[in-house]
Amino acid sequence: MNTAPASYPIGTPGTPWGEAERNQWLSRQTRQRSYESEVVGKIERLRDRFDVEEYGRLEYGSESFPLLAIRTRDWRDGLPVVLVTGGVHGYETSGVHGALQFVDQHAADYAGRVNLLVAPCVSPWAYERIHRWNPQAVDPNRSFHDDSPAGESAALMRLVAPIRDRALLHIDLHETTDTDETEFRPALAARDGKPFEPGGIPDGFYLVDDSENPQPEFQQAVIAAVEQVTHIAPADGNGEIIGSPVVAPGVIQYPLKQLGLCASITNAPYKTTTEVYPDSPRATPEQCNTAQVAAVCAAIDYALAHR
């Protein structure tokens, strides 16, 4: 794994960024792939089987990004609601394409059993830049709260508001990458004027449970399914994964609502955040997408069986 830089090339160590530093950071971001062709195009091809809606639009300079969600066509108010989100961090590729693969290959399996609501790419600008933040250097996945500074987060919360109390399950699809350590954590420390503390990147898949409402059997059911597809991250020498105690194989916990994380936006009894490791020599992009799909299917199956 690459070593993180000694100091981040923007800003003054110990001093939080101001507008000038954010603008300098923004000037360094380049478009590397197409949301329109890689994501919107795939969603459009699902319109013959599912309802597709534009739940918002992000205007960044001369760029305009439609925010798209996919719904069960035969939506019935009496059925439980399952929410699947991906691409909250746009660079986490398998979250986006795993969500789309699930809809294409498996959503029909749950027809008449659940109402599905899928937002496959919450952060399209960051998807194109292969980045964690939005253009204001704001992390959408710390911004799911009232008066959110992130348009990506605010739009998703508006979409989800009508089903917030009716959701049975919310699964939020993420990745942990080597660039978390080489780019994104150093950038975060620089942005906030804090020292960068090097850490490690776990080799394998893991889940983040809600410490305020833990569901250990549910999390283990998801781990057991994903284990058939790709390897599960082991605890490090401190019994931790990314600085958090491992509470069960492949599972850590965060206070989701307190941290403003996407998985906190409903009152669903079952919530989890997946973390795939795409940089592992033991995993292919196809495996990463399939691991996300396996996690979604296992989560729905468990939630339906334990309603």
Features:
307 residues; alpha/beta; Aminopeptidase; eight-stranded mixed sheet; two-stranded antiparallel ribbon; globular
Can you describe this structure?
The chain has helices spanning 19-27, 35-44, 93-106, 124-129, 151-160, 178-192, 216-226, 285-305; strands spanning 51-60, 63-71, 81-86, 115-119, 167-175, 206-210, 240-241, 244-245, 251-254, 270-276. The mean pLDDT is 96. The chain is 31% helix and 19% strand. The protein is of the alpha/beta class and 307 residues long. The protein has a single domain (19-305), classed as Zn peptidases (Aminopeptidase, 3-Layer(aba) Sandwich). The protein is built from 8 helices and 10 strands. It has an 8-stranded mixed β-sheet, with helices on both faces. Strands 7-8 form a two-stranded antiparallel ribbon.
Structural class, from helix and strand content?
A: alpha/beta
Classify the oligomer: single chain
Might you state the CATH topology name? Answer: Aminopeptidase
CATH architecture classification name: 3-Layer(aba) Sandwich
- DSSP strand (E) fraction? 15-25%
Largest sheet: 8 strands, mixed
- Give the CA-based shape: globular
User: CATH superfamily membership, which one?
Assistant: Zn peptidases
Could you spell the SSE succession in H and E letters? HHEEEHEHHEHEHEEEEH
What is the typical, i.e. mean, pLDDT?
Answer: 96
Portion of residues in helices?
A: 25-40%
Number of helix segments?
A: 8
Spans where pLDDT lies below 50 across 5 or more residues: none
Q: How far is it from the N-terminal to the C-terminal residue, by CA? A: 43 Å
Protein name: M14 family metallocarboxypeptidase
Family: Belongs to the peptidase M14 family.
Domain Peptidase M14: 31-307
Cofactor: Zn(2+)
